[in-house]
Amino acid sequence: MRRSYSKSFKEKIKERLLEPGIVKSLLSEETGVPASTLCRWQAQALSLGSMGGKKKAKKRKTQRNWTALQKAQILARASELEGDERGAYLREQGVHPTQLEAWRKALDDHVEANRQSSRRIQQLERELARKEKALAEAAALLVLKKKVAAIYEDADDDTNGPSES
After folding, report:
1. Is residue 63 part of a domain?
2. Range of 152's domain?
């Protein structure tokens, strides 16, 4: 069962958790708050303390979410450069050479997957065209068959008509 604690109580406990030499198991026994809850509160207090009281922790500055376009631009520019110029460019962009190679591999894999998809699409389009042609031919044969049947039916009606004897 989950227990609810007041904000002031949580804040007091978080302050105590930030004190040097505090033992969570003793604090847990003293306050009646489970040790796992204290660990979570301590992590929250540490992230808040380093942020100056803000609620959300910042992402590390070195971590960056690159768009596919940005990755492609960096790959293109890096492939034009060599040696120290390339290293300086990568440092300026905040990209490690291993990260660049991973991007290149992912791009190559994506290009190959697109190539295979394009081949499959072309194959399916050819098959569809062949089947549409066969269907049109079958439809034309059915129309001709009906016309022939109609012609013979008319001819039979003329020969089997009422005879005047």
Report:
1. no
2. 68-157
The tens digit of pLDDT for each residue in 104-144 reads 999 999 999 999 999 999 999 999 999 999 999 999 999 99
Are 86 and 78 contacting, i.e. CB atoms less than 8 angstroms apart?
Answer: yes
Structural domain total, the chain: 2
DSSP string for residues in 32-79: ---HHHHHHHHHHHHHHHHHTS-SSPPPPTT-----HHHHHHHHHHHH
Distance of CA 98 to the CA centre of its chain: 22
Q: Give the integer Cα–Cα distance in Å for 36 and 106.
A: 40
> Does residue 93 form part of some domain?
yes
What is the Cα–Cα distance from 93 to 11, expressed in whole angstroms? 41
Long-range contacts: 61-68, Cβ < 8 Å, 24+?
A: 62/94, 64/94
Residue 84: per-residue pLDDT: 92
